[in-house]
Each structure stands twice: as structure tokens, then as C-alpha cells.
Amino acid sequence: DVKVTQSSRYLVKRTGEKVFLECVQDMDHENMFWYRQDPGLGLRLIYFSYDVKMKEKGDIPEGYSVSREKKERFSLILESASTNQTSMYLCASSSAQGHNSPLHFGNGTRLTVT
Amino acid sequence: GQNIDQPTEMTATEGAIVQINCTYQTSGFNGLFWYQQHAGEAPTFLSYNVLDGLEEKGRFSSFLSRSKGYSYLLLKELQMKDSASYLCAVTDSNYQLIWGAGTKLIIKP
Predict the structure, then answer these.
(1) Which residues of B touch A42 (CB under 8 A)?
(2) Which residue among A41, A99, A107 places its CB closest to the CB of B30?
(3) Which of A35, A65, B24, B44 has the most Cβ atoms closer than 10 angstroms to its Cβ?
């Protein structure tokens, strides 16, 4: 089974702090994604990556950056955390075989910015 | 704009059948997914439809009508463990996933 592991389940940070959310997958997937999930809204794509050192902006990249130095690891960075970035963050991966491979998600990181 | 609509919440009885609808307006269509998400957990893949018709997988079935921009997820013989949110997502012409807000299904004994 594919395992996608997010480093923290819960995080509390202060406004202005730099925050790192880590995600590791163990199935050699090419594609990795970062989403945020807020009540009443669908999943919103922040950034994605189809290969090592490659990154593409999603629908809401403002205030975020990413890093993919190794195939299995995709990091989300909040350069200066703000209260409106309080959310559930979900990492996902998928195989590059076909455009419609299902996503495999991590358990999420619930981030609170105070 | 692109839009996916699903009911916010539904309630059903253990042992019964429930149908969760999803309608979409997207720039093109390249497939529709259903995911299940238990509270506090990761979404997990349930089904994928790209052609019209019904796909059956055990107690769960998913239906697609591309001409109507419509899908439903049918859950039979409901069990308490089926209490979860069900997410509908459509792949558009650029193979980008568009997500609905999810339907919270509550199962009562």
C-alpha cells in the first residue's frame, strides 16, 4: 500500500513565523501535491510537482513556496505565517501513469496560526 | 467558472440505501472521482468514471452522465462505518482536478 506521511498532525505557530510542512511518500510516485482543506470549501491546490526540482503553482500559491529536492519528499513552506493560513493541509501523491491516477493522501497537518 | 455541486449533509439509516449526487460545470471533462474521508483522516479513493454508465464495486456504485454533467454515488446496506464525508472531483480539459466541497453522510442506527 502507498504510504504518504506528513511530519506533524497538529502545529501551532505564531504570526510571522516561518513554517515547514514535510511530506514523504514511499511508492516512487512522480507526482506530488499540496492542498488546503477548509470547511465548506473543496480542496484547493497550493502547489504541485511532477518531478524532482520541478514545481508548479496551483490555484492559491500566494504566501507559500515548495521544495522538492528528492523524489519522495515534497515540502510546503509558509514564509511568514498569517492567521488566514490556519487550515488543514493535505499532501498527496500519484503515479505519472496516465493523467487520471488516483491520489493517495497523507493524514493531514492541522495548522493553527495565532 | 468551474463548479462542482454536492449536498452539504445527508442523513440515512443503517441498512438502508443512500444516493449522493454531484453535478459539475467544468472546462471539458476527463474523468470523475469519488473519495471517502472519515473525520480527521485522509481522503481515500473510492471510484473513477470516465464513460457514461454505472460502475459497481461491492456495496458502492458510481454513475456518470456526461451529457447532463451529473454523477451519483450509491451506497447500499449502509453500515455505521460509512459515516464520513464523500468528495466528488472532476478532471477538466487540462487534467486539473476540480473538487466539490464534500457531502457529510450521517448514519443513524
Answers:
(1) 4, 87, 89, 98-102
(2) A99
(3) A35
**Residues A17-75 pLDDT 10s:** 999 999 999 999 999 999 999 988 889 999 999 999 889 999 999 999 999 999 999 99
Grid coordinates given for A103? 491520489
- Give me the pLDDT at residue A97, please: 63
3-state helix vs strand vs coil in chain B, percent to 5: 5, 55, 40
Answer positive or negative: Cα dihedral of A25, B91, A109, B72: negative
Residue that is written with C-alpha cell 454531484 in the block: B22
Instruction: Give yes or no for residue A98 having a pLDDT over 80.
Output: no
CA angle, B45 as apex, B91 and B101 as ends, to 5°? 60
Residues of B in contact with A43 (CB under 8 A): 43, 87, 89, 97, 99
Cβ contacts of A60 within 8 Å, gap of 6 or more = A36, A44, A45, A46
Q: Do A99 and B91 touch (CB under 8 A)?
A: yes
